[in-house]
Amino acid sequence: MGVIGAIARHSNAFIGPGIMLLYPLYASMRAIESPSTLDDQQWLTYWVLYSFITLFELSFYKILVWLPFWPLLKLTFCMWLVLPIFNGAAYIYENYARKYVKFAVSQYGSDYPEGQKKVLQMMGLDARKSVEKYIDKYGAQAFERVVQAAEKEAKRH
């Protein structure tokens, strides 16, 4: 188990740069080019959190060097932040950071009524992108009709 054990012990050196830097870099560039601002939230939050992790590592390096599980813990956390199935960075923003950051203009655009903003906030990132495209294409009134129809359907079941 020498080679396999060595690969397992140093997997963060192989996988880490791809997950923590290359994929987020690629996804950030795609987010810049996309017309939606919703994916920007995921990647801006990721880079802020990654910066905090890096500052934490630099500040506590002498302690972290003695913790053999730190690289795996960091890799696992960054995977949760990055992977589209989890969208951890967007989750942290929605559930923690947003409470402390006040914007003059709402995250979802000032042209959406309050009820629609609440619906958008409850959705995942991919769903929000789809709804935003739907509203841009068909208008806010069409989206409101869809929400009302869904509410009626939910009451029947």
Automatic annotation (TrEMBL):
<feature type="transmembrane region" description="Helical">
    <location>
        <begin position="73"/>
        <end position="93"/>
    </location>
</feature>
<keyword id="KW-0472">Membrane</keyword>
<protein>
    <recommendedName>
        <fullName>HVA22-like protein</fullName>
    </recommendedName>
</protein>
<comment type="similarity">
    <text>Belongs to the DP1 family.</text>
</comment>
<feature type="transmembrane region" description="Helical">
    <location>
        <begin position="6"/>
        <end position="26"/>
    </location>
</feature>
<dbReference type="InterPro" id="IPR004345">
    <property type="entry name" value="TB2_DP1_HVA22"/>
</dbReference>
<keyword id="KW-0812">Transmembrane</keyword>
<dbReference type="Pfam" id="PF03134">
    <property type="entry name" value="TB2_DP1_HVA22"/>
</dbReference>
<feature type="transmembrane region" description="Helical">
    <location>
        <begin position="47"/>
        <end position="67"/>
    </location>
</feature>
<dbReference type="GO" id="GO:0016020">
    <property type="term" value="C:membrane"/>
</dbReference>
<keyword id="KW-1133">Transmembrane helix</keyword>
